Amino acid sequence: MSRTETGTQAPGSLAPTGKRPQGTLYRGREGMWSWVLHRITGIAIFFFLLVHILDTALVRVAPEAYNAVMSTYKNPIMGLGETALVGAIAFHAYNGIRIILIDFWTKGPKYQKVMFYVVIGLWVVTMAGFVPRHLINVFSEVGH
Amino acid sequence: MSTATLDSPPAPADDVIPTFTVTLIIRRFNPDTDDEPTWQNFDVEMYPTDRVLDALHKIKWEQDGSLTFRRSCAHGICGSDAMRINGRNRLACKTLIKDLDITKPIYVEAIKGLPLEKDLVVDMEPFFASFREVQPFLIASSKPEKERLQSATERARFDDTTKCILCAACTSSCPVFWTDGQYFGPAAIVNAHRFIFDSRDEGANVRLDILNDKEGVWRCRTTFNCSEACPRGIQVTQAIAEVKQAIMRGKP
Question: If you measure CA to CA, which chain B residue comes closest to A21?
């Protein structure tokens, strides 16, 4: 190894850097993150529906029990949970339309990024309409 | 006689091309000694015209000869040197270092979802097995005297998917493929698309049948990672969508 170097040639540091022993997170773009969000919201909605069917079925078993369960939901924490639920459903619904268009509209794949930002825009508008109204309801009932 | 042009002083000898130091953090793995991969830093002095492959060469030739990676043509045609550069699948020979953020270290690691063999080399066999499974060759019963004729429009129908160099950048960027190695993967579907929509080919229905499988095109979740990763600019997700449509129609 008699090759002369022009620059500062630091030898390969043999000590491993130690950080991030796993591979890096794949840096996907709009398509990948919309898919990740679609999965997360989908699974969240699934668990909501599971609980929802169970507590609604309770009314056939015993109306008093149903009322008791319903009354435990009327607190600010559940109110915030409902906000998250509506947010998840709104995203899942709008992005679902985007995915249908990607699959069935010939120009869908070409405009997938634009459609993703349209989804985000629609979601923001929906939430802007829903969240203030809902939170006023939730927090005005706290005193009652 | 004035010879001004000749008398003008020659370009100064110290007019060197500027260089810059970049740090590459490479995910290394030696199957003989390591239980799991580790990250290792290398500082290299590079020119603005250099690519990530040149930096890897410099490390291998001047700093650590044990660094292992594949490359053949080094000009973006052979498809040997697909790797994950700063978290995205790229060909090392088509990625200029100056186009990356050189104020930060450049992370280089093997492509994901295929078995890691050493450093940046993965076992490509599962990838090629999927490729072979879609029958990527012309199936035609006729034996013409001369060539098989095709109009320019018919040729344009599948032009995009003829560009594939089988580098596996698309397949190994697919989140579905990472978790489900049985999935055919974008590259196999692209190469099926190339023959399904070829007017000279007669095996379209066979291929559509192969891809109309639980692990076929229906596994595609349209994350568009493949289209972003393709070094040849193939609209991979579009091609997969066209195959999905062809399966639903029952013909190309």
Answer: B38
